[in-house]
């Protein structure tokens, strides 16, 4: 009967069989190096160090490790996207080369005079031929450097340790207890290179690895009381996120490369006079080019606020606006 109140074979008035659980807000996804990337971008802006134009190519998974059930790869296939986000956090001048399918299609349409940039006429207004988009020589900025590489290592169980202890009274009905624990360590490795687009000279190569730890802890109690048998156990396990580990090594590599391109002397640049937070366009969520002059209300810092736009946790929102849908 309890389940029937939560799940129904007939859709309710809202069109759902069941209400989903969970109300965690969307948050930023930083690594230990995200703040340093943001600070590096602020250093470059404060010292008038312009970023070269950078493109990101393929950063593939070369480990070849797949899930045993065939459900997919063990590591993320989005390392290139992580690198783009890391470069954006550092204030890099990015040009798109990873997915140019839409631009290439529109370039094809423009070459056939099928695309216009004129405003759409209001509904019901007479329509006629519009001026077509022209293709101008040199309209696409070229890149100065491009970033490529791959995830090259995934090593399981580099080292592990465990504990299994049991104890209790020697009588048959005496209380008995058990304690178990286990630690295990694995690692991932990354190799990146920065290439001069014009000369194809490799100007920077970085290889990093990061270890990832996991743990399991369990406890159990067995006892006989008043003719009744009681067997209670509890446990807890945790694994450091593997994909976040991939993001961490990528951000560390990008941090070192951009530090070189900006001419930053080292981490001490982020310890001088603090890091201005107001009016930033780069943050731990990435970076953007403002469409309007409203940085006092919309900036990188407001993008990092997990409660922003979330009516369920906004104290100023009306009660009717706090529903999840």
From TrEMBL:
Any one annotated GO CC term: outer membrane-bounded periplasmic space
Listed InterPro entries: Curli_assmbl/transp-comp_CsgG (IPR005534), Holdfast_HfaB (IPR049861)
Record's compositionally biased regions (Basic and acidic residues): 302-325
Cross-referenced Pfam families: CsgG
Annotated region (Disordered), positions in chain: 291-325
Source organism superkingdom: Bacteria
Protein name: Holdfast anchoring protein HfaB
